[in-house]
Specification:
Blueprint: E1 15-16, E2 22-24, H1 29-51, H2 53-62, H3 74-92, H4 98-111, H5 120-123, H6 139-154, H7 160-176, H8 189-200, H9 203-215, H10 247-263, H11 268-284, H12 316-333, H13 336-350, E3 368-369, H14 391-402, E4 408-411, E5 414-417, E6 423-426, E7 432-440, E8 447-456, E9 461-465, E10 473-475, E11 486-490, E12 496-501, E13 506-508, E14 520-525, E15 528-533, E16 543-545, E17 550-551, E18 562-569, E19 583-594, E20 606-607, E21 610-611
Parallel strand pairs: 5-9
Antiparallel strand pairs: 1-4, 2-6, 3-20, 4-5, 6-7, 7-8, 8-12, 9-11, 10-12, 13-14, 14-15, 14-21, 15-19, 15-20, 16-18, 17-18, 18-19
Amino acid sequence: MPHPVTPAAFSAAQAPVALTSVHPAEDGWMGRFQRRNHEATLPHVIAKLQETSMQNLRNVRDGVKADHIGPNNSDSEIYKVVEAIAWENVRHGELDFTDFVDEVVELAGAVQQEDGYLNSWGQAQPDYEHFSDQAMGDELFTGSHLVKASITLARTGRTDLLEIARKWADLVVERFGPGKEGYDGHPGIEGALVEFYRETGEKKYLETAKALLDRRGQNRLRYGALPSSFFQDHESVRDAHEALGHARRQRYLDSSCADILAEYPDDTELHKALVARWDSAHLSKTYITGGLGSRHYDESFGAPYELPPSRAYAETCASIADVSANHRMLLLTGDARYAAAIERVLYNALAVGVSEDGTRFFSSNPLQVRSRQRDEDNNRIERAEWLNHSCCPTSLVRLAASMGTYVATTSGATLSIQQWVPGTIDLPEQVGEGHLVVETGYPASGRVTVRLEGEARPGARLRMRVPAWCEKHSMSGRKALVVDGYIDRPLVAGFEETLDFHMEPRFVYAHPRVDAARGCRALLRGPVVYCAEGVDNPQIENLVFHTEAQVQEAAEGELPKITVPASFRKKPQALYSHTMVAVTPEVRETTLVPYSQWGNRGNSPMRVWLPTI
């Protein structure tokens, strides 16, 4: 099955290894995550959609006048799940959830108008002029997920949804193609149309995608108090060099820009702006967990270093969009920093978004929760079975199903391992025959053995990414040269190397301009961020932590807990004082858990940034 971001005329530095060639071990981190997604999360999400978004389409089909359930773009959640099912069926090798896909195709075909328009929110309003609410209607964004789902499904051999999507895409070309006006407040249609061009070979879709992107930045999209920067409409995509506005929209936009850049590689101004926005987002506006967006009011990026832990919005969807954008930049450039950014999200900002049983979700992901804090719709302190805006659960199941596509890439006869996942990777034809075996407990362990079972072609090479967090490493007991983040070795018969990424717990400081984390440190081990929960640590808000750490025993492959000594603050006599509050001589042991696992044992205070001695 072709990868969903492989350009028709490939001009990028790296090509993705197909999902069908990556086989995660069932007992590894990714294997367990995907099994839970298949067995628990997908069925749960489908059941919830039947009660909500699917009912909107049924109401339009049946002529029922009823209030629209959920946000304007609720149809997009259906299509994201169809795409997830397509990926899952390829990965799992079985045609599961077919009844749901059948119903979606039947409903979409029945509801779609003669001109190709298909949107339950727009069609439920008899007096609404289609595409007229370009700021908040999200009609093009909603349809972008129809297009993406139809392509992924078509690549499994089923094309009925593709024909529905073609009618819709043709309407978009007619209304928004070259020489026309308008664009959507939520980016995403541009990249979808690029992919539709790659699937169909019809250049009108690519030209429309580029026209939509080129048109953006006219400073015309606003909604109430939300300025044009919220919609990334304050500057053109080639002039905007700072990550601004709604975080998820920004990264959807950057994904689309990267798709366009892959087809127009000489657009140096677009490339320069993309890199500048990445620097802006990731060097001064990203939480240590990989979360994006520090403002709840508009779910947006704040100013540089504005990263309050307790008010982190850090929407799960924004982190998922960040994975998409980073993957495209990795393919375009081959730069290891994009793979490192994906790794940080996978083990922290993504993983925290779903409960251990796979049926409860966070949309916002704070890095601190105080005692007696109130649970709010957009600032939850407990995961919910469902969310009024269900973009996070549906995006999560889609990413989980396709996660194997981020593991490895190729360039000519060179295979690059980008994410460390136990299992096997089939060798692409230009690299050889057979497969690589990867044995590791990563991210619980930093020890990785890579072994070739098969025959490599003459000149084949293997690049193995050294994680950005790793300060000390060895390869089969000796030093290894690292160039641009990779160990590069000839891939020959009998190849076997054991990498040891030394994975000691480490306390890190935030940049001094991150005001809310001054006087604190965060604990990490490998790529995993840790936190303290009140359920393990009574009176957590009176604790001051020492900077020593002991890793606890854990089952093989399971992320361990970490023990850290701490002291109590002496109770101050006044709210404000001219001296620092002292700590008691008594030392107690505290327990820290992976941030991704917090909130699974009931409502409890939590913090990532720890006051330290």
